[in-house]
Write a structure and sequence with these properties.
The protein is of the alpha+beta class. The protein has 14 helices and 12 strands. It comes from Streptomyces spectabilis.
């Protein structure tokens, strides 16, 4: 998505650090940023990426610039690149997905969240959000990410920013945050389906099941219905009050919907050996039962049943409720896939600690997507190659003459 820019970037080519190093880093940046239309944009993209990889501690734009360039104007140029330059992040994410797939087939597609705490009300999409993982209500941005699980690692390859209705309905807020005209408020379940559709269009394999935690979304049923309509297998955590239909009961008007929590206790209980993505194994007691989803059209062919399952905790209470279309798989295999939700949490935590996920104010819509794209690229590169960070980035700090700067301004308009 190309977003018009009110303030054009002016980057003297002679001050742009050249991150074209020996393989594999240069090969990675050449592929992932090949669709950026200007050479200086591609070079600044590589420089920003290198900065994220080599800068210790907080990843402010000033510290990133100091790590990759000796130019006194590098801070301004790097800030303009990530916040103001009108480059399209969709092709970058597309190439990142293709590059990641070369490291092995994705066992699952995981949908996970990034909660980005903010101060004040200037950051695009900031709102009050109850975070179920911490039990706290935060002032934050909420990002929804798509992750490929490759060889036990989860890497982010796409994002959606959740925009509450006030941000899309207020013309002043839209203008201030540079939200494109075609972007509107969409609920979490619809954004999650959009990520699934995007992955299907970008990836070569379409067999990977979707793993997602929708246990706090009252509209999780709409997400499940959307996955079913797309013939996409899934393992999805649902709210305990999620309505399901018992299978096999015969009543004049059909069975009445019941809550997942009440109905799963009517199923079988067995002990299964669950294998996490990192290979660790654990025995769990699991209850499961076959169900259908309410809401099918009258007269429609009955859909195949799904399996509802939950862990029985040591105190006898129920854990997270899961619904899966993989009824043909062994329960231990499906329960193992459910553990992939911890992988997305760990990936987001790693991006926060080591790749600057939280170190960007994100006032504008394009700036937020630019930063998330670059952080995702840095994380994916490091996790899938295990290579040391690039060093010795050459640069030429001598600025260009004023008439050359003006020409670069005009080229961006």
């Amino acid at each position: 998505m190309v977003v018009p820019c009110a303030l054009p970037i002016s980057t003297p080519v002679s001050e742009v650090p050249d991150p074209h190093l020996a393989s594999p880093f240069s090969d990675f940046t050449d592929q992932v940023f090949q669709n950026l239309r200007r050479a200086d944009q591609r070079r600044w993209a590589g420089a920003y990426l290198a900065g994220l990889l080599i800068t210790p501690g907080k990843k402010s734009v000033r510290r990133l610039a100091g790590a990759v360039s000796a130019s006194p104007t590098a801070v301004q140029s790097l800030r303009q690149f990530v916040s103001l330059s009108p480059w399209d992040w969709d092709p970058v994410m597309h190439e990142l997905t293709r590059w990641a797939e070369r490291h092995g087939p994705a066992a699952t597609w995981a949908i996970g969240r990034a909660v980005l705490p903010k101060r004040g009300d200037r950051s695009v999409g900031v709102h009050r959000y109850f975070d179920p993982s911490t039990g706290r209500t935060l002032n934050c941005q909420l990002g929804l990410g798509a992750f490929l699980c490759i060889g036990g690692l989860q890497v982010p390859v796409d994002w959606r920013l959740l925009l509450p209705a006030p941000w899309t309905e207020d013309p002043q807020l839209r203008r201030r945050a540079r939200i494109p005209d075609e972007v509107s408020h969409r609920p979490l379940w619809a954004q999650a389906l959009d990520l699934v559709d995007t992955l299907e269009a970008r990836t070569e394999s379409t067999a990977a099941p979707v793993v997602a935690d929708m246990s706090d979304d009252p509209d999780a049923g709409l997400f499940l219905r959307g996955l079913s309509q797309r013939a996409r297998d899934f393992v999805v955590a649902v709210p305990q009050h999620q309505k399901v239909l018992p299978v096999g009961e015969r009543t004049p008007n059909g069975p009445d919907p019941v809550s997942a929590r009440a109905h799963v206790s009517q199923g079988n209980t067995e002990t299964v050996l669950v294998t996490a993505a990192d290979g660790r194994q654990q025995e769990l007691r699991v209850q499961s039962v076959l169900v259908r989803l309410p809401g099918a059209r009258a007269g429609a062919t009955p859909e195949y049943p799904y399996r509802l399952f939950t862990e029985v905790l040591p105190d006898g209470s129920q854990g997270v409720m899961w619904l899966t279309s993989l009824t043909h798989r062994r329960l231990d295999n499906v329960a193992s896939l459910a553990t992939r939700r911890h992988g997305t949490t760990a990936a987001v935590a790693g991006m926060e600690r080591h790749f600057g996920l939280l170190d960007f104010e994100g006032r504008s819509f394009p700036g937020w997507y630019h930063h998330m794209t670059l952080v995702s690229a840095a994380y994916t590169y490091q996790r899938l190659t295990h290579r040391p960070a690039p060093r010795h980035l050459p640069c030429c700090p001598t600025p260009l003459p004023q008439h050359t700067r003006e020409r670069l301004h005009l080229a961006d308009r």
